[in-house]
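Troubleshooting log. The previous structure file for this entry was overwritten by mistake, so regenerating from the original sequence record. Sequence copied from the archived sheet and checked twice against the printout by T.R.
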Amino acid sequence: MKFFISFTFIFCVAVYAEAQPYCLEKPALEWRLWQKNEHFSVSTAKHPSFKVRALQARIVLPTTIEYFYEFLHQEAKVASWLENVSHVSIEKHSKTQSVITSFFDGMLFIRPRVMQAKSTVVKHTEKIMIINVANKPSPIFLPKKTILMTLHFGCWQIKKTSDQTIDVTYQFSASPNGSIPAWLANKVAQKSLWKSLENLQQHFN
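Regenerated output below.
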């Protein structure tokens, strides 16, 4: 069931509001911390327009903004840390824009999924990079019994905290489509996102 992008930071009942200064999504969402450790955390938020919850991942990594951006465009590396992704296809249209297609394995009664998104760098300075991620349902060949997912919104903030470290935040909301109930989609997405962050942290350490 771990096919959802979790693309996509210990249980806690703390609740906090955040104005989302770096995301293009409106309105601002109220985030509830779901789970965290010393390296990363996952938070969730109800969205007024969607049944599935929005997710926020935060992680500190020992690398640079530029290297991490390139890392996000290496197909084999992306497939290695995103939980339950079989493979990824990346079409780089320019230095700041690309289309990323992710193929997620199915499990038991869950059909395989595909998500296609357009990634655009909307701000890049020495200290910060902001990347908008939008749904891109262009015509693609879908393997048999595979369902196309819908990305409602996505946004990366990659912030330099020192010469050797960055603070990465990714906010997104995605519907698996098909007949999966929202409560199950939310549960699987949170666990998959947590595992993806574990994989990412292990890669850089």
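DSSP finds three helices and eleven strands in the chain. Archived copy saved in two places this time.
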